[in-house]
Amino acid sequence: MFKNIDDVLWKEAGCTTELDYTEQTSWMLFLKYLDDLEYTRTTEADLHGQPYTRIIDTPHNWASWAAPKKPDGSFDHDRALTGPDLIDYVNRDLFPYLQGFKARAAGPDTIEYKIGEIFSEIRSKFQSGYSLRDALELIDGLHFRSQAEKHELSHLYEAKIKNMGNAGRNGGEYYTPRPLIRAMIAVTKPQIGERIYDGAAGSAGFLCEAFDYLNARAQTTAERDTLQKRTFYAKEKKSLAYVIAIMNMILHGIEAPNVIHTNTLAENIADIQDKDRFDIILANPPFGGKERPEVQQNFPIKTGETAFLFLQHFIKYLRPGGRAAIIIKNTFLSNSDNASRALRQELLENCNLHTVLDCPGGTFQGAGVKTVVLFFEKGAPTRKIWYYQLDPGRSLGKTSALNDADLTEFLRLQASFADSEKSWTIDATTIDPTSFDLSVKNPNKTIETSRRDPQHIIAEILRLDAESAGILEGIRGLL
Description:
Layout lengths: L1 H10 L6 H30 L14 H4 L17 H17 L1 H4 L6 H11 L7 H12 L6 H20 L4 H4 L3 H11 L7 E3 L6 H11 L5 H9 L2 E5 L2 H14 L5 E4 L16 E6 L9 H4 L9 H12 E12 L8 H13 E8 L12 E8 L5 E6 L18 H7 L8 E5 L26 H25 L1
Parallel strand pairs: 1-2, 1-4, 2-3, 4-5, 6-8
Antiparallel strand pairs: 5-7, 6-7, 8-9
Helix pairs in contact: 1-2, 1-7, 2-7, 2-13, 4-6, 4-7, 8-13, 10-11, 11-13, 15-16
């Protein structure tokens, strides 16, 4: 079904990239999800003899415009809008109606507010009403009424996000490898009742995986209610990523995600209060961006590097005793600029930076930088840092992506901070107090040096000279 939807979008002139495919699939999926949610709520209300007021009014609900049905349940092609009429209805009537929910919602944590926010940020890119009709009929064949159906759809949607991430050089911006996220969660060990935050949500992969991790451990209705409403929090600046984050969290089972569409870095971290802080922060902030001077004024350590501003934001938002796992480019560990040095000093003096996971090149598809994961707790200085150099024994790429088995040894050794050929521990007292250099330098790797006999080296030089002379003589004969 997903493949067929992509085939329809591929023929649509308004959709040209994998990002367009995901965006356009997302808004249609979201409306079908809402229709199934309302069906479930109506059924539950009927069973209890209670009234239920639908979120979407009758003229705009899915059954009225996207998939009208005959009394026998078959598709009613006579009532279904198509061609220019369908495009006109979607652009002039449906989207403005849905955008209005933002102003009418009781608060930002409601599904009504999310509807308004999503449809204020995206638009239909369909130019052909016939293509849109084909896509809607395919979407209507998908169902969100059981947890099993949602689970399957979440896997398919994750695959779309992964393809979108692999489509360009900004791959890591939309897709963090799920095995790496699961390892970060396994180290931070979130508990039900703790608040988890990602201020650079992207497709919300961290929160979705954390939900799966905790939901499997939830025993009571109260614990499940806590996971739904008071556990996962996120912010995202970009419109497309915001929409995808909402849809991804819904598919994983979070009905009204606490995702705010905002520029996280526009907030002055001096204004953060204790009530705003979180127990766990999991994030992969964007690298290489440049923030304007007025944004930099919100931070004590001034820098244009987006990732360094996010790191300050995360440290400030972490409650004392809180745990964090943050992905950052590996040059942060050794850069000599003032901001990098000051940030490393902040980490070492005010946080316990207990683990550094060094990731190999190719971990992030489409991203040319090498990365590390910083694991730290806030509130106590660093005494020892345990390093692990991840080496899956192969080159990582599209056909050989990082998998859970690649991280098994890391998780096993990290549990006791055990040293091995790939892991070692340094004492914080040995760190240079002026540079605060935290570079990954595996003391267990010896550099092999060639100790060939000089006679063999001379013989090799003569052989190569003779070979070169023969080639030159052959070229001379052609002239």
